[in-house]
What we know:
The protein has one domain: Alpha-Beta Complex (2-enoyl-CoA Hydratase, Chain A, domain 1), CATH 3.90.226. Helices cover 49% and strands 15% of the residues. The chain has 11 helices and 9 strands. The strands form 2 sheets. It has a 6-stranded mixed β-sheet with strand order 1-2-3-4-6-9, with helices on both faces. Coenzyme A (COA) binds next to helix 2 and strand 5.
Amino acid sequence: xxxxxxxxxxxxxxxxxxxxxxxxxxxxxxxxxxxxxxxxxxxxxxxxxxxxxxxxxxxxxxxxxxxxxxxxxxxxxxxxxxxxxxxxxxxxxxxxxxxxxxxxxxxxxxxxxxxxxxxxxxxxxxxxxxxxxxxxxxxxxxxxxxxxxxxxxxxxxxxxxxxxxxxxxxxxxxxxxxxxxxxxxxxxxxxxxxxxxxxxxxxxxxxxxxxxxxxxxxxxxxxxxxxxxxxxxxxxxxxxxxxxx
Length: 245
Ligand code: COA
């Protein structure tokens, strides 16, 4: 069974992260597939919106920690790097449905989404400093801009988890929906967008896009520092501690 699955329905490409035995932790192959499905969908006239989701008890536990140890050479050709930059080029709206853990890139990815729905089980976390790392995906720029410096500093420096109600208050998500309805609500919103005039939708998304030059520069700076941290003894010790729990 593929770890990234797609289904195209009424103009919506539904992308499901499907590695439940590892709490949907993202490995290199999964980043590559995610990027390819987004690029393909962006070029396909039959697709007008994307919806990314996990299962009804897990969005994603973030980057595969074992991969942090095995594939710690984070250059421009690294699949995670390429996936993150592909988000900046996406022309069509991206929606997300979040249940359970949304850790690391599971939360920073949401800052690139247009609409995000979560249920009461959702738990967001940016544990970069806990792992002796630094923020990625432009979150050190996007999060302070979205929620203010002090609140972003709390989330990025302390790395504690926050729940769906807090995420809604922060404006990181649009709404909290009951678990049983989450997937359907998110899909209906995606279908509504997909049914609208596509050129108008894409032009609206383009106009709303933050300054990509600044974001691109920030993401590059973050990933440069991330690559250094990844090789550090303090980070390696944290990864080993998690894997040997
Ligand atoms: N990378 C690799 N494996 C992971 C993983 C990750 N990010 N997250 C979970 N797993 C694996 C566990 O090692 C475990 O594997 P095993 O059964 O072979 O031992 C399995 O997934 C289940 O994880 P577990 O921790 O038992 O699930 P849980 O429901 O109790 O907790 C989380 C879920 C997400 C809270 C917890 O797994 C976690 O904190 N994961 C790490 C998150 C993280 O630091 N991500 C990197 C961010 S930069």
